[in-house]
Design brief:
With about 240 residues, this protein is an alpha/beta fold. About 35% of the residues lie in helices and about 15% in strands.
């Protein structure tokens, strides 16, 4: 498969004008790139400026979803709404959702099922904290997040993103050799040829190593995706 590069804009940029400028710059920068599939996950309120502007190698993704199709759930967005907006991928279980909003593995499981039922592709995020890693609990945490998250779900329908929480936004990415070990560990837990992404302080300088050396099928990119030139260079370096 082509490397899958997912841009998670999180709660950025501040204005629609800035968002459009960023998207247009990225679109121009990769217009001739055919060897990677790029997914941009903007905040919901910025979805409208992306409608019908995506090219063959750029897709629309979402940062989260609720598991109900409709109803009295103030502030939530349903999978059917996302699909209608042209969304093809949905990030589920990001560490920031788990940490700040106390999202549980059971809730992650419901969201995964809802996204699959709506015929979109979920990206399941898993990863350990610095403290859990220090206590030797990495395998235990990953096994729990995978097994509970994928309860009664075929792993063939998802993408897994390994994001060590201690590396996210810290400027201290997981070393390439260590990332490779983690990919092999996760592969044993899943026991399927599921596409796997790496995320956590990814930039244009280390991106190639995670794919060509560590063996990941793509990347989940945070901060670097908010800088058009840096993100375009990152994509070019993995192709």
């Amino acid at each position: 498969m082509k490397p899958l590069i997912v841009a998670n804009w999180k709660m950025n940029p501040e204005t629609l004008k800035e968002a459009k400028k960023l998207f247009d710059s990225v679109k121009r920068g990769i217009k001739n790139i055919k060897k990677a599939e790029v997914v941009i996950c903007p905040p919901y309120v910025q979805f409208s400026i992306f409608n019908f502007q995506f090219s063959n190698n750029i897709k629309l993704g979402a940062q989260d979803v609720f598991w109900k199709k409709e109803g009295a759930y103030t502030g939530e967005i349903s999978p059917l709404m996302l699909r209608d907006a042209g969304c093809q991928y949905v990030i589920i279980g990001h560490s920031e959702r788990r940490t700040y909003f106390k999202e549980t593995d059971e809730q992650v499981n419901k969201k995964l099922k809802a996204v699959i039922e709506a015929k979109m592709t979920p990206i399941l995020c898993i990863g350990e904290t610095k403290e859990e890693r220090g206590l030797g609990k990495t395998k235990e945490i990953l096994e729990r997040e995978i097994k509970l998250g994928l309860n009664k779900i075929s792993a063939s329908k998802i993408i897994v993103a390994y994001e060590p929480i201690w590396a996210i936004g810290t400027g201290n990415p997981c070393e390439i050799e260590e990332a490779q070990k983690m990919r092999l560990l996760i592969r044993k837990i899943i026991a399927r040829d599921v596409p796997m992404l790496y995320g956590g302080s990814v930039n244009s300088r280390n991106a190639e190593g995670y794919i060509k050396e560590a063996g990941f099928q793509g990347l989940l990119v945070g901060g670097a995706s908010l800088k058009a030139e840096e993100f375009v260079d990152l994509i070019k370096n993995v192709c």
